[in-house]
Design brief:
The protein is mainly beta. The chain is about 15% helix and about 45% strand. The chain has two helices and 14 strands.
């Protein structure tokens, strides 16, 4: 897990994972059950049980306090995801709290969020990432919504290239040793 966007991007570059930044600047208002963007290896959907709302600051958030924000990726070539995930009050201001991030392989990560630039990044060295679920943990759900200002999707561009990612990681580890 990465909590620094620069380190995340550098690691993706070292592993030959090509990332593309996605944001919500072309969306506005309410989308039920969610919205879609990107294309090819970078296609995604964002959904929540009560729908997704994109505010004037281009933050995508759940429409209900208790909802989970789910990003789903259609490509089998996605091996990294990173983004700014945080809590927003109804007036659009940031709220400190605890967040749970769950990857499609069942990996859970619990972290505190203290601003709208709180970064969380993940790189898989085996299974592709098909979804990321962002939800509240503990009492942080009271009067706040799970939100994101944008994220990066990392894909291995060619079929079978995951072997190259593993080889690059092995070589990088040997160089550091």
């Amino acid at each position: 897990m990465f909590d620094n966007a620069v380190s995340y991007q550098a690691f993706c570059n070292d592993m030959n994972v090509v990332t593309q930044t996605q944001n919500f600047s072309t969306f506005s208002g309410s989308y039920v059950p969610g919205l879609s963007g990107g294309s090819g290896d970078y296609a995604w959907t964002a959904t929540a049980a009560s729908g997704v709302f994109v505010d004037a600051s281009s933050n995508a958030r759940t429409q209900a306090h208790s909802d989970t924000l789910v990003f789903t990726f259609s490509s089998p070539n996605v091996y990294s995801v990173g983004g700014n995930f945080f809590n927003l009050k109804a007036d659009g201001t940031q709220k400190d709290g605890i967040m749970k991030i769950r990857l499609s392989d069942g990996t859970n990560f619990i972290r505190t969020v203290t601003n709208t630039t709180t970064f969380s990044g993940f790189v898989s060295d085996g299974l592709n990432i098909t979804s990321v679920e962002i939800s509240h943990a503990g009492s942080s759900a009271a009067n706040s919504f799970v939100a994101s200002s944008g994220f990066n999707i990392g894909a291995v561009p060619a079929p079978g290239a995951m072997a190259l990612v593993g080889l690059a990681g092995f070589i990088a580890r040997r160089r550091r040793a």
